[in-house]
Write a structure and sequence with these properties.
With 80 residues, this protein is mainly alpha-helical. The chain is 52% helix and 0% strand. The protein has helices spanning 3-8, 19-54.
Length: 80
C-alpha cells in the first residue's frame, strides 16, 4: 500500500497503537500539514501578485525579520 492508499483507508484506533506507530503517525501528519501550509501560502502569494499586477502594482512579500532585542549572552562561570 502506498501513502495515498493509507490516507484514504486510515481509521486509527489510537489507544491500541504502539508508541512507535503513534510517533510515525504524528511525524507523517506534521509533514502533510506543513506541505499544505506551504501550498496555501504559495497560492495566496500568487493571488496577491495577480491582483496587484491587474492594478498596475508590484508586490514583494518576504519573510518577517525578528523584532525586539537580541537575547543576552551568558557570562562564563569564571567571570561571575
Amino acid at each position: 500500500m502506498n501513502d495515498l492508499e493509507n490516507q484514504k483507508t486510515f481509521s486509527p484506533n489510537l489507544e491500541q497503537s504502539s508508541d512507535e506507530e503513534l510517533r510515525k503517525l504524528i511525524t507523517e501528519a506534521e509533514r502533510i500539514l506543513n506541505h499544505r501550509d506551504r501550498e496555501r501560502k504559495k497560492e495566496a502569494l500568487a493571488k496577491i501578485q495577480s491582483i496587484a499586477k491587474a492594478h498596475g502594482l508590484s508586490v514583494n512579500v518576504g519573510k518577517r525579520a525578528r523584532r525586539g532585542r537580541p537575547s543576552k549572552k551568558k557570562k562564563p562561570e569564571s567571570q561571575m
